[in-house]
Write a structure and sequence with these properties.
This protein has 108 residues and is α+β, with helices and mostly antiparallel strands. It contains 4 helices and 2 strands, in the order αααββα.
Length: 108
C-alpha cells in the first residue's frame, strides 16, 4: 500500500508543480533555473532532470510556448503560457476551489 500512496502523492505534486509553472509563466516569461528556485520557495525540490521534461511536455501539449532571449551574451530559453494554457489554468482553478470546498480545512 505504501507504494500506491507514494505514487499518488508524486502524481499530485507533479500536478501542483505544473500549475505553478503555468501560473508563473502567465505572469511573465520564465526560464528553468528561475522556476527551480521559485518552486524551492514553495518547498518543492525539483531537479533539472525533472523540470525540463515537464516544460517540454507542457510545450508539446501547447500549454506553454518557448522563445529565446539573449542574456549576458548567451541564449536563454523562456516559457510563456499560451491561451490554451490560460484556459487550462482557469479550469484547474475551478476544480481546486471545488476540492477545497469538499475536502478542505473544515472537512472531517
Amino acid at each position: 500500500m505504501k507504494g500506491a500512496n507514494t505514487k499518488m502523492l508524486r502524481d499530485f505534486f507533479l500536478g501542483v508543480i505544473k500549475i505553478h509553472i503555468l501560473y508563473h509563466a502567465n505572469r511573465k516569461g520564465v526560464y528553468g533555473l528561475w522556476l527551480i528556485e521559485e518552486l524551492g520557495h514553495h518547498g518543492y525540490e525539483v531537479s533539472p532532470g525533472t523540470l525540463y521534461p515537464i516544460l517540454h511536455k507542457l510545450e508539446k501539449e501547447k500549454l506553454l510556448k518557448s522563445y529565446p532571449e539573449v542574456v549576458e551574451g548567451k541564449i536563454r530559453k523562456y516559457y510563456k503560457t499560451t491561451p490554451g494554457g490560460v484556459k487550462a489554468m482557469d479550469q484547474v482553478r475551478e476544480k481546486i476551489i471545488e476540492l477545497i470546498n469538499e475536502v478542505g480545512l473544515n472537512a472531517n
